[in-house]
Amino acid sequence: MGFVCFPGKTAIFGRHDHRSGKCTRIGYVCTRTMTTRPGLALPERAPRSRGVKSARWRLESRLDEQSSTQEKRDQNGVGKEAPSFSQRLTERLRTRWATLLQFIAEPLRITVPKPLVIAVSVIGSVFVISFVAYFPDWKTESKIREKIALFDFILTDIVHGYVDPVDTEQLFEAGVDGMLNSLDPYTQFEGNIAAREMQLKTAGRYGGVGLGIAQSIVKPEETVVLNAFEGYAFDRGVRAGDVIVEVDGTPVRGMPLEKVTELLRGEPGTLVRVRLARETRAPDGSRRLFDVVLPRRLVTIHDVPLYGMIKSYDGVGYVRLQSFASNAGRELRAAIDSMVRTGRLKALILDLRNNPGGLLDAAVETAEALVPKGSAIVSTKGRALGETVFVSDREPVLPPDVQLVVLANEQTASAAEIVAGAVQDLDRGLIVGTRTFGKGLVQNVEPLPYNTALKYTVGKYYTPSGRCIQSVNYKEGGALAAALPESENGRRFSDPSGTLLPALPPANGPAHYLSTKVAESERKTFRTLHGRIVRDGGGIEPDLESTLPKPSELEIQLLDEGKFFFFANRYAAGMASLPEDFEVDDKLYHEFQQYVLKDIDHLREHTRFEPGLKLFADTFTEAGYRDAQKDLERMRESILTELKRDFERHSDAIRQRLEDAIRQRFEPESRRLSAALRYDKVLQDALRLLSENRGETYTRLLQAATEPAES
User: Fold this and answer.
1) What is the pTM for the complete model shown?
2) What domains does the chain contain, in order, with CATH numbers?
3) Catalytic residue among 439, 471, 552, 563
């Protein structure tokens, strides 16, 4: 039995003889319309695809149909005598067995619709690629879970089995800090109190009374007022130098500073009674006690503490921006707008000195007030952060014809450098001062459970010209880095090539990041919008360098020991106000000298050189070098003589610090900062730049250099 198939068609199972035009094997079905012999109940159009199971079922069905047809023919008298039941059964089994063997021996070919093949292939490829791509992450996740479990075992064993009871919280934070300290100085775990303080700094407001407090240098058990904020505690009569005795009847002597802060803060709208002690001029050194009721309010820490027109220079405005909390851009816009409305603003000086930075969004909003709309302000790049370009989408509040000078120094960092870099790269203004800190890293603050947070580095930022001003490269380190010495500003010492000094690590020492300063030879040059040359890898370099005199040894020691602070307390005792033309005259300056020199032994024993001299003295004593010991004593006397001479050599700087400390006892911050500008050399250089040759010097410095930039 068989069937006729149209030539040129594709068989689903088995081969098809296109020359004869027939499918000679039973059960081989073509994919198109077929003409069959009588007795075969095949569909007019065969299905395009079947599985192995359906093919076998179909084969058995055809055999049954063939057998049934033969039996009917025999019953009608066609053919031979009908076989017995056993014969029919035997023949059927033999036929089926032979057909099955033939079916298994033939190769199985399945024709599948092309769209289905493509779909299955794509899905399979995606699955394979996804698995391969995820495999490294899966391995990383497995490692993370392994280390978490190990840390859990270690912490649990120590807490329950260590010889002495341990503080679980301190132990945990020590372990986390050790881990994060191996990365960079900015990646930190913030506990409950630290996380709350960080949130207050970034938000720029909190519920409190408006006081800045600290532990006393002379008497650490006392809490003293460092600053009373204008508009808050200052308006209620609290002054710098006052000692907090009680808060709502609770004595605070010897109390940790964090606890005193918690007592002062609270729900806005409530009141808190604070007992204070203020110094008097009594011979016995007694203090005057008094109570002040302070309302708790939503305290706003102003990012712009001072702004206004400089009286002695026509048309020059001044704004001091001290931080980048959430309101920085709004406050700067308001300050500039108020000066623009006077109709006299011709030039603006933006003071970013000693600004440690803050929020990235605040830096972008601040720059938007200065640069043209549509300008790229900063871009950020990171492994998980991706790349983002921040573009100004607002019109600047500073008119384009108003000249702009930004003051910067080595403590201008982070968000403040973003603003300075945008102003410089877009040729919107000039930078005056010294090279900035060089922090080009971006941190993310991730809130964690239990009122904690994680601050970690997620990327670097780049100024509009494409440069990253990060001055130090950090690398994950271990105990070796922890053994390396640190410089005065907290950075690791390095040799001229920029590599770390070698040192032997202590056994099982704490982990510490590795840091290398970007070498001058590695710094690349870029072009500003108008073609001026700028460089990366070392902060923002000023267009006009202007430096302040370096503090003298005497000045540093007087600051460390709080001499200005405590003398100001004594001077202000019993005085209601300062005269309008107050300044530190010769009489007052001589009085201050006597105050410092009355305890000459203390001054001698607390110089910055004394620890080194004492080490030499102990070594000479062990060695029996008596003459060398005498030389050391003569050296101490020489140092003391030099310190006394500093009173004359650096009298201007010492007088300025003394005047500022005294003014802090009588005047709000805005007036005190304004008075200090009279002695500001960098500000004077900026004013001279704007006024020289009717601004021609300013215009010349904004012009492009002629030498080509290096790649």
Assistant:
1) 0.72
2) 3-111 (no CATH), 205-300 (2.30.42.10), 553-679 (no CATH)
3) 439
